[in-house]
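Archive maintenance. Older records in this collection stored only the sequence; we are now back-filling the structure field for every entry so that each record is complete. The fields below show one back-filled record exactly as it appears after the update. Entries are processed alphabetically, and Thioredoxin domain-containing protein is next in the queue.

ARCHIVE ENTRY
Title: Thioredoxin domain-containing protein
Organism field: Streptosporangium minutum
Length field: 172
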Amino acid sequence: MPFLIAAVVLVGVVCALNLVLTFAMIRRLREHSAKLADQRTGGPELLTRGSRIPEVVATGIDGEGVPRRPALIGFFDTECKACPEQVPHFLRLAQDAGYDRSRVLAVVSGPGGDSYIQTMRSAATVVAEPFNGPMVTAFSVSAFPSFYLVGEDGRVRSGAVTVLGLGVPVTA
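Back-filled structure field:
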């Protein structure tokens, strides 16, 4: 009989410990879910749909001025890990939409952007500038990469941190 009592007490202690650990795990999962929700809503601030794009005076790497009415704008950073994978999508969107070079603007921030410049210069007006240069500052870019589709009226149609996030289908 003492063995049976000891076994029941042991099972009771193990069940109580399991219950305490389960409640602790539920509390941690709730905290984690709240942090994930904050990250989703606390994303980079982009120009809102319908806002006018800022007027900026800058010169492209080939000596041309920045387009006054660009249709597609991309901001890239030389130290950004996600930027290189977005370049082909950016160029494909420009091609699929039929935008000529004068309607596409690519801004490369930071030193050593030669690979970006060479890749994009045939399809876009490319502006190379230091970190937090005039273009990045004027557009209040807080995350790289950032992209904008702009209407004929100079107002933002959509903005995103990925080309696919702009809501325009891009062919593979």
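Update note: DSSP finds four helices and five strands in the chain. The chain has two domains: 1-42, 72-166.
Entry marked complete.
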